[in-house]
Amino acid sequence: MDKLNPKQDGASLDIVQDNIDKLRELFPDAFTEGSDWDGPRWKVDFDALRKILGDYIEDERERYSFTWHGKARARQIAQTPSAGTLRPCPEESVNWDTTRNLFIEGDNLEVLKLLQKSYHKQVKMIYIDPPYNTGGEFIYPDRFQDNLDTYLRYTGQIDDQGLKVSANSESSGRYHTNWLNMMYPRLRLARNLLREDGVIFVSINDVEAPNIRKILDEIYGEENFVSQVVWQRTRRGDAKLIANNHEYIVCYAKNIHATIEAGLWRRPKEGVEEVLEKYEEVKKRFGGNHDRIRKEMQSWYRSLPDGDPRKSHKHYNWSDDRGLYFAADFSGPDDGRANRPRHDILHPVTGRPCRKPSTGWRWDKERTEWALNQYPSRIHFGLDESTIPNRKSYLNEVSVEPFGSVFYKDGRSATLQVERLVGSGEFPFPKNSEVIRELIDIVCGDDDFVLDFFAGSGTTGHAVIESNVRMKKKRRFLLVQLQEPTNSASYKDISKLGMARLRSAIKESERDGAENSKGLGLGFRAFSLSASNIRPWDPTAYDLSASLFDYIENIKSDRTESDVLYELLLKYGLDLVVPIEEREIAGKAVYITGAGALVVCLGDNIGLEVVNGIASLKDELTPEVMRVVFRDAGFTNDVVKTNAVQILLQAGIEDVKSL
Length: 659
Ligand SMILES: C[S@@+](CC[C@H](N)C(=O)[O-])C[C@H]1O[C@@H](n2cnc3c(N)ncnc32)[C@H](O)[C@@H]1O
Description:
Elements: E1 2-3, H1 6-9, H2 15-26, E2 31-36, E3 39-44, H3 46-53, H4 71-79, E4 84-88, E5 102-105, H5 108-115, E6 123-128, H6 147-154, H7 175-193, E7 194-204, H8 209-220, E8 225-232, E9 246-253, H9 256-262, E10 267-268, H10 272-286, H11 290-303, E11 318-320, E12 323-328, H12 365-373, E13 379-380, E14 390-394, E15 400-401, E16 406-408, H13 412-422, H14 433-443, E17 449-452, H15 459-471, E18 476-481, H16 494-512, E19 525-531, H17 544-550, H18 561-571, E20 580-585, E21 588-593, E22 598-601, H19 608-621, E23 627-630, H20 638-650, E24 655-658
Parallel strand pairs: 1-24, 5-18, 5-19, 6-7, 6-17, 8-16, 17-18, 22-23, 23-24
Antiparallel strand pairs: 2-3, 4-19, 7-9, 8-9, 10-15, 11-12, 12-14, 13-14, 20-21, 21-22
Helix pairs in contact: 4-7, 5-7, 7-8, 10-11, 14-15, 15-16, 19-20
Bound molecules: S-adenosylmethionine (SAM).
């Protein structure tokens, strides 16, 4: 039975190895067999690769590039596997059994590494609002090689709290550098989680906007740039020179063609929903009397104050049995072309040809006939043929528009919303959940996945909840937030505050949108970043026999079966919300996940009855591949352990490992 190697298997996806495998698929000739301390390995033959790529090699000394001190190291940081794990925290969670949302406490660099297998190409939309680098925020220190260790010290999970965290001030001399070194590896890792048609939105201000564009150009490709949206957050301005009252949301697609192909990206025009609601109400009152409906709609529009978005649709005051419409001009453009369609259109009452516009019609005869033959007709006529006919433009058919690249949304309502949910003064400058909800609505399909790895007060999670309740969708969120200490008496750190906000938001949604919120999986599963449950093999040189004895049991003594189970899910690339069935087989707890994709038994004194019981699951559950994991020291004796492999193999289960 193969033992899970704590050094490899306790770590997250080895990204370098994964990239090498991909490269070898493309250029098998550029690889040669070599070996490492842990066995044979493919090695890149750069001379061969250079020959294969021929003209496409850049070897000019002066070239266009964006670089800074530490960039190579930042790239390497992204590729170093994590030795951490995510431990479940059901007591912090809401609706653990029914939700598919996740809230992860921890440093996002380590967490993104741990998510690489389970959520590879799963995420439709990333929204992040990282520290803007205005001097006040701290930049969490990534220490090369031992970032997890740094994190454990920072969060007091291991002794020596000597980690000094300071703000990234301009006087540090590495102002932009520190920020870029922090952002670069995280953005690289995050891209792997995006689906082919996925997109990333990054909130940023003028200080780092040029830098974020440069690194996103590099990571996503310039051709995948979508927009740098300007968000005006206040109308006030009291600067000595120019009042800076905007910030940006920069957007890149993973693959712009796939994003366009996937469609969506339209939002309702402001005020349209309300006008259509009014129309429905008026229609109920006046039935099929379209003249009365028109008079009523016109008088309602007049009663609205100037500047009201509903009033901008006041030309939509005609109606027929299809709905509310505007009688739109369909004369041909005045472009001097003599051969515009000039066919006759007969008046439906008088039967005589109607007046024609001097520039002819916009539509050809065929299209006009199609419109006339619809029921109700899509052409609007005057009382007789003396009026030039129009085309009917229905409000419910033109009720959407693209998201504009400039918009205004006051920041104060966001602060009030968070204050209502977690108390006043607890979290400065949250983002508006309404804005993020609109982005989610234009980008996401019915059950798409939204990721925010700088979650703060949890605005993105709240926006997903709002979007689901309003539109009866089942979109999921995955939030990551560091336990950054706060000065608050109520919340020890920002991740606790974020979870508290989500708990209140869920309660509020269940109360206010009671009917709509049913069956949507509102809630979240909380997890916390920690060192792996599996002890790495780290013997003491002066007492090897004691070390060997100690390492018989390599699961840490303070960890639960559930902790180990979730680590295995990550290692095998399964979703952290995959259903887990617990069964008792011959008196031992056996966990069946993903309908048999992974079967785990971590009990003691495992005998052949347990092994046979697990073998029979293969026939019962018929998973494509079944993997089985035991504890190495869990068998009654070595004979059972040896026989277990054979019994399971005979049942068609080849992947059997021990911990
Ligand atoms: C500008 S705030 C995000 C605010 C959020 N959009 C909201 O509306 O509440 C940035 C957040 O990123 C968090 N953060 C900074 N470094 C982090 C790291 N390495 N891992 C996880 N979170 C981090 C900070 O603690 C802070 O809460």
